[in-house]
Write a structure and sequence with these properties.
The chain is mainly alpha-helical. The chain contains five helices and three strands, in the order H-H-E-H-H-E-E-H. A three-stranded antiparallel beta sheet has the order 1-3-2.
């Protein structure tokens, strides 16, 4: 009997645009954005983030878990305190770029609004 091992399942590659969409979905929550903004400044303990984020501890914990699964943040424990930090400085750069884009968009909208108000 010459039994052959079953062939491994085919590798299904996910298109890059789909991976990007999933990445941006991860960023698509105000609490997660605020957490990333705080961590862009420095490593923070969960207790430090709570008053800045303004949500219940359980909700913050859920959002931190999403960011950990996406590998955008990592954590370390020191006694009973858990500290979080960004896994890469590019996350902070992305937030800075997003801020610049939003600033440009808002400026354009303000200019359009001014034009609408002055046009009779």
């Amino acid at each position: 009997m010459n039994a052959e091992a079953p062939a491994p399942p085919p590798v299904v590659s996910v298109p890059l645009y789909q991976l990007k969409a999933e990445f941006f979905k991860t960023l698509g929550h105000p609490v997660r954005i605020r957490v990333l903004e705080l961590l862009s400044q420095r490593e923070c303990a969960v207790a430090e983030m709570l008053p800045e984020v303004g949500v219940e501890a359980a909700h913050l914990s859920q959002q931190l878990a999403v960011l950990r699964r996406a590998r955008l943040v990592s954590s370390r424990r020191e006694g009973s305190t858990v500290y979080y930090r960004l896994t890469t400085p590019e996350v902070a750069e992305l937030l800075t770029v997003a801020r610049g884009i939003l600033s440009d968009v808002i400026t354009s909208q303000a200019e359009l609004l001014d034009d609408l108000r002055t046009t009779t």
